[in-house]
Amino acid sequence: MSFLTSPQKVKHLVLAGAVTTVTIAGTLYGAGLKTEREVAQKVRKSREVTLDERIAALRDMRRNLIAKKELVEKQMLDLDSRIEERKQKGIDNKRV
Asked: Which top-rank group of organisms is this from (predicted)?
């Protein structure tokens, strides 16, 4: 008897394939449900945040943005002063 001619072996093969298919489908379905539940939880939590907490978070964000703005402005001033120094040195080098 060859492998595929035995009816019992064919039944075992079909059963194994069916169990594998059902397991994979169940896993994917369960993962989808879990993802939906997590998204719903995040939405619920964001809605539960009080107005005072939102204001505090926005104030913190504003402070951070102001600090970054000041840093960038300082860097721009430093760059402008270096450019001006190089221009002056370039003019002095041409005179000599």
From this structure: Eukaryota
- The amino acid occupying position 27 is T
The tens digit of pLDDT for each residue in 19-70 reads 999 999 999 999 999 999 999 998 888 788 888 888 999 999 999 999 999 9
Q: What is the pTM of this model?
A: 0.43
Q: Could you tell me the residue range of the domain that residue 21 belongs to?
A: 1-48
Same domain, 3 and 38: yes
Q: Which residues contact 3 (CB under 8 A, 6 or more apart)?
A: 9
Pair of tokens at residue 48: 């539960």
